[in-house]
């Protein structure tokens, strides 16, 4: 499976299994859930408490407030992203770049087992060989000629693509002063330009599929904050986010049946950032690939356009840049975001492909 690599080694702490995400998840399914909130006044009423009693009034007000918040959240999603499209997995042809390992392979295997037709594009062979329903195509997505050639093969052999998941990425992990020009070019080609190549190649097929389609873009919180030893990666991910938002605006007007999903995770426990120390395991826990995969699969299955951000802090990362510059600098020092890459090792000892001196890995 895609979990062949263990979690990156982290600092020991007594509260390691506990994170703010866990606290919020428990709260959302208890005190902040409308169903639970309305149980309280019902229990009070079962005890024959008068309607005008203070505890009863407070519990009803709280339940009403939580219900309004949930309804407002649902309306916000609908206004922001529109109606979902109908999805029939037996008719879907899903293209996943960088799907030979890590998160990409996990999503590919799940969809393959569930009856969808899956095409994986990668420069390395799939770690476990081709799974049921998954077809591997050797392809360097930073090469537009290879992308065009493989796209023609996919349409001929598997059918018209309906879902594109842009997942491929590489990490050089060096200071800008230490990177060579070929490394910089390779990084930007794979992390940014490849999105343009795959979109230009596969989007026409999605628009003529007759059932609409879904485009999933894997970005990163690093594209919002930047980090030492990640100048190339941060620049590319910032560009990917801007590309996704601009394309979504274009497609809303010209092809409203295309759904757009933007994924902005923090550190994910995959080989891409193996060895990187999370700044704070309580506030910024390492995200398991299965959690990101579940969110992506849920969005695609339900035909949603949406934004996915994991862990919790990733949902609020835009607010970081609103803070005064001095406060941002203090927060960076306290979080250790610019020291995390000092322990970066990537796929140390694992199978890898070298091209122009750069490790080629997938999210």
From TrEMBL:
Record keywords, A-Z: Membrane, NADP, Oxidoreductase, Transmembrane, Transmembrane helix
GO molecular function: oxidoreductase activity, acting on the CH-OH group of donors, NAD or NADP as acceptor
Pfam families hit by this protein: adh_short (PF00106)
SMART domains documented for this protein: PKS_KR (SM00822)
Domain annotation Ketoreductase: ranges: 92-271
Highest taxon, organism lineage: Eukaryota
Residue spans crossing the bilayer: 56-73
Protein name: Ketoreductase domain-containing protein
Taxonomic source organism: Coniochaeta pulveracea
């Amino acid at each position: 499976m895609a979990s062949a690599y263990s979690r990156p080694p982290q600092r020991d702490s007594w509260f390691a299994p506990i994170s703010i995400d866990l606290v919020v998840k428990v709260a959302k399914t208890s005190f902040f859930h409308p169903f639970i909130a309305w149980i309280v006044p019902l229990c009070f009423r079962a005890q024959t408490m008068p309607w005008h009693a203070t505890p009863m009034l407070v519990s009803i007000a709280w339940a009403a407030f939580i219900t309004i918040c949930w309804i407002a959240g649902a309306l916000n999603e609908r206004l922001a992203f529109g109606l979902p499209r109908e999805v029939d997995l037996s008719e879907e042809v899903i293209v996943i770049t960088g799907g030979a390992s890590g998160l990409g392979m996990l999503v590919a295997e799940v969809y393959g087992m569930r009856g969808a037709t899956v095409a994986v594009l990668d420069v390395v062979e799939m770690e476990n060989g081709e799974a049921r329903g998954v077809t591997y195509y050797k392809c360097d997505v930073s090469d537009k000629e290879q992308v065009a050639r493989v796209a023609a093969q996919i349409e001929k052999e598997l059918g018209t693509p309906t879902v594109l998941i842009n997942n491929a990425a590489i990490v050089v992990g060096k200071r800008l002063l230490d990177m060579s020009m070929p490394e910089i070019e390779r990084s930007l080609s794979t992390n940014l330009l490849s999105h343009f190549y795959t979109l230009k190649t596969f989007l026409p097929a999605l628009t003529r599929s007759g059932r609409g389609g879904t485009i999933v873009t894997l970005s990163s919180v690093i594209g919002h904050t930047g980090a030492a030893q990640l100048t190339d990666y941060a620049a590319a991910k910032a560009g990917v986010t801007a590309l996704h938002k601009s394309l979504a605006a274009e497609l809303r007007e010209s092809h409203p049946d295309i759904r757009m999903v933007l994924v902005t995770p923090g550190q994910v426990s995959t080989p891409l950032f193996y060895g990187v120390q999370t700044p704070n395991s309580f506030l910024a826990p390492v995200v398991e690939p299965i959690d990101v995969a579940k969110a992506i699969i849920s969005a695609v299955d339900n035909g949603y356009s949406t934004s996915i951000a994991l862990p919790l802090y990733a949902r609020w990362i835009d607010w970081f840049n609103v803070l005064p510059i001095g406060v941002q600098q203090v927060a960076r020092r306290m979080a250790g975001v610019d020291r995390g890459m000092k322990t970066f090792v990537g796929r140390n000892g694992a199978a890898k492909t070298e091209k122009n001196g750069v490790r080629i890995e997938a999210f």
